[in-house]
Amino acid sequence: MKPIIKTLPVFLLLLAGAAAAQDAVHYSLRISNAAQHTAEVSARFPASAKADPIVQLPNWRTGRYEILPLANGLRAVSAKTADGKNVPIHKTDKATWQLNLPAGVPFEISYELYANELGLRTRHIDDSHAYLNASAVFVYAPEFRANPIDVKLSVPDGWQSRSGMDKGGCGHCFTAANYDVLTDAPIETGIHTYVQTRVDGKPIELAIWGEGNYDADAMLKDLTAMVKSTNSLFGSVPYRRYLFIVHATDAARGATEHMNSTVIQSTRWSFAPRVEYLKFARTAAHEFFHTWNVKAYRPKEMVPYDYQKENHTNLLWISEGHTSYFENLIALDAGVQDEQEYLGDVSATLDGYLRTPGRFEQSANESSFDEWIQPDGDRHQNASVSIYPKGEMLGLTMDLTLRKESGGSAGLRDVHKLLWQKHRVDQGGYSEADVLAALQKVSGRSWQDFWARHVIGTEELPVLALLKDAGIDWVADRKPEDGKPYYWTGLSVAAGSDAEFAVVKAVEKGSPAWKAGITAGDVLVSINGFRVSAKSADARLQTFGGKEMAITVFRREQAQRMKLSAEQKPGAAMKLEADGKATPAQLALRKAWLAN
Ligand SMILES: [Zn+2]
């Protein structure tokens, strides 16, 4: 810090600024027409130190690294002074409004909010609830981003309001230390099932909106076990209380982490059978792990968040992929799933990963940087790699390597403990060099070479060899009696608008179908002269796969013919299987890894 030598007027101005910095920003939201998804919002700000202050709505929300048109939900934006005089206001870009107001005058912004988006977890109002992520709901003045906040909701009778924020002076009031806390503590208000408990002395709450085939008490029991397991992994916790919000609904699926809460969306009938329930449980473990990895410590390029534009970093594969790696281990450690179920989920990720030609086209670093603009569909599969499976497989590779080299005593969790201890958000976050230093500290050696090959580079991960060292084999996923060859073409088809049609969804780069010239969007109509549908396509490819096949597709309604020669593979899918004859050394590594 530099010594401060200031003249008196500037010093006084600083003092005035310090006083203004303590004034609260007051938000109020009244649900005006629940059926039509609208609310009236107002935000009262202290006096600005500058003339013509601006207010903004974020262009993305934390946890979803994508620019979103959030400001499109605001209408009838107006401004007035604290004593009620209208103030001219105009837009200067898609999410910024400027007031025509002298300095030193407190002001209020009002607008109508349309909230009818559920699946991106931004804002949703209907006659049974409202889910409000402040990034999509409440404007902020950059000048007052650090000021304390209070929020008052006016909601229909019988509703209850929950948030990671502290309760304010009324049943539907909350307070936050600043706007960053507000944006990372979404509000769930409405009619919901609510249960709570305490874990390690801290309240753990569960609020479920929507009916479905769930058992809230059983869920809370599993959440409790996973919270305990994660708390003990890190050794200390970054929250005073934690809230799991669950949306049991129709089409929405996904989840988002926040500072001391999460929102998890599942289709309402997907909490059973067990295989479906485990997806919920692993997602809950994932989001809870983020309370540390992302919310408490994250890449320095995202500290503080810039709400107006992309926050590029090369390290999102650690934020997301390592979290995916640990979610599964925590569910295992907590006893929510067994070893077989653990290996089943890792198998599915590994199988998908090894069928992603894009892993040789895009590195973990590049994928992280470009997460904001990742392409979809077959192009993604062939030209990109997702930070989730890539980061998870990097996590598995790194953990097994650390375990193997340390005789089981050190692991990836030790690296994350160091990041949590040394690079918290209030310490500025972490850099690539900080991660390399943590790896070196845990392992006693440099990870520069690993980084160059597998993080900056796209060299194949030695994951199958490391799993073999732990006595886990990669084998064809098929019944023992089924000795038939499997003919692989690299084609994925699905039903088109007419369920009879087999529409090509993806063609794996370099596969037989790729070489034959088949592309996504083609409609596969016949194989060797026989008609195929979405239902029969895979079976007919197996029937005729032993020899070159004559394929007919419609491309933009016109027939095209091509020759397709399949390749023989051990099975349609692969899986991990514990080797019953593993050596003591293999068993020791497996034990250290899975006991984690
Ligand atoms: Zn995540």
Summarize this entry quickly:
The chain is built from 16 helices and 31 strands. Helix 3 (216-234) crosses helix 4, helix 4 (274-289) packs across helix 5 and helix 6 (339-354) packs across helix 9.
Explain what you see:
- The protein has 596 residues and is of the alpha+beta class.
- The chain has four domains: 170 residues, Immunoglobulin-like, CATH 2.60.40; 78 residues, Zincin-like, CATH 3.30.2010.30; 173 residues, Neutral Protease, domain 2, CATH 1.10.390.10; 77 residues, Pdz3 Domain, CATH 2.30.42.10.
- It contains 16 helices and 31 strands.
- The strands form seven sheets. Strands 5-4-8-2-1-12-15-14 form an eight-stranded mixed sheet. Strands 24, 25, 26, 27, 28 and 29 form a six-stranded antiparallel sheet that branches. Strands 9-10-11-16-13 form a five-stranded antiparallel sheet, with no helix packed on it.
- α10 crosses α11.
- The protein is globular and about 85 Å long.
- The N terminus is likely disordered.
- The protein binds zinc ion.
- The site of zinc ion (ZN) has 5 residues, from α5.
